[in-house]
């Protein structure tokens, strides 16, 4: 019985994801931002690394740039792109029309987010192989932690994008409402600045930011310097943020245009 129920849901999700992927492909600015920004921004971090004592934290240039690249992919390929997508579909009454059909609310949000999440996953894989081969990042010592970090980062970015879209009035203002999380994550979650180089007291506060657990797991999977207790703590913080974001989306997400 469960298989009979899941099969139509799977077909509906695939159809919605294909339609969303087609719309994404037609938006040249969104495609450019999603593809080029995560690849270009890590190289802006490179000059600042020369003045940092990375060896003390068990890091090297390749590992730091890999973590930065995956973090930028979370922020620009998934989070900011989805904020604009959710707002655009809402203001164009697409979401409202979808709710009149067979799709449930969760299916609509998941189907809309699926192409961006898959793009972020593909980018993470390409960036990982690229940094391992060309930047001497080295093979991950605990690949399961890196995989868990990528998965939690993608899920959190999708949920936080839906939450941000709830308070965003227009597509034009989506870039503005997304900026706080982007800046805070870049500076405090270990994306632009390695978490191991931050002052201890400040770093302990930044560990509680939404994307910090995912970035910590990605980095720890490569360095092997993340203990089992630290990995469990990071996973617990990520799960707490994900649960809070899902609750907030169910409570406050708007399906009709904001007036």
Structural summary, described in words:
The protein is an all-alpha fold. The chain has one domain. Helix content is 76%, strand content 0%. The chain contains 10 helices and no strands. It is globular and about 55 Å long.
The termini sit apart by 43 Å
Question: How many separate domains make up the residues?
Answer: 1
Q: Give the averaged pLDDT, no decimals.
A: 84
Measured on Cα atoms, how large is the radius of gyration? Answer: 19 Å
How is the main sheet built? none
The helix content, as a percent range, equals over 70%
Helix/sheet category = mainly alpha
- Helix and strand sequence: HHHHHHHHHH
Global geometry: globular
pLDDT under 50 segments (min length 5)?
1-5
How many β-strand stretches?
A: 0
Estimated share of beta-strand residues: under 5%
Count of alpha/pi helices: 10
Record the SSE blueprint:
Elements: H1 2-26, H2 28-49, H3 61-91, H4 94-99, H5 105-134, H6 143-166, H7 174-188, H8 200-206, H9 212-223, H10 228-252
């Amino acid at each position: 019985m469960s298989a009979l129920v899941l099969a139509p849901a799977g077909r509906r999700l695939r159809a919605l994801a294909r339609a969303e992927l087609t719309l994404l492909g037609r938006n040249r600015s969104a495609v450019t931002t999603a593809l080029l920004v995560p690849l270009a921004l890590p190289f802006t971090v490179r000059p600042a690394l020369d003045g940092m004592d990375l060896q003390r934290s068990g890091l090297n240039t390749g590992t730091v740039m890999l973590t930065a690249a995956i973090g930028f992919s979370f922020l620009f390929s998934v989070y900011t792109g989805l904020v604009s997508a959710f707002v655009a579909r809402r203001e164009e009454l697409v979401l409202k029309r979808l709710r009149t059909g067979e799709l449930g609310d969760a299916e609509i949000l998941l189907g809309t987010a699926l192409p961006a999440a898959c793009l972020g996953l593909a980018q993470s894989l390409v960036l990982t192989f690229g940094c391992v081969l060309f930047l001497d990042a080295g093979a991950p010592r605990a690949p399961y932690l890196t995989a868990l970090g990528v998965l939690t980062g993608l899920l959190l970015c999708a949920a936080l994008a839906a939450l941000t879209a709830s308070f965003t009035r227009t597509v034009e203002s989506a870039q503005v409402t997304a900026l706080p999380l982007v800046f805070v994550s870049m500076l405090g979650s270990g994306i632009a600045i390695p978490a191991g180089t931050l002052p201890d007291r400040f770093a302990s506060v930044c560990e509680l930011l939404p994307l910090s657990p995912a970035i910590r797991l990605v980095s720890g999977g490569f360095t092997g310097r993340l203990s089992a207790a630290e990995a469990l703590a990071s996973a617990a913080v990520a799960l707490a943020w994900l649960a809070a974001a899902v609750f907030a989306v169910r409570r406050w997400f708007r399906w009709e245009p904001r007036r």
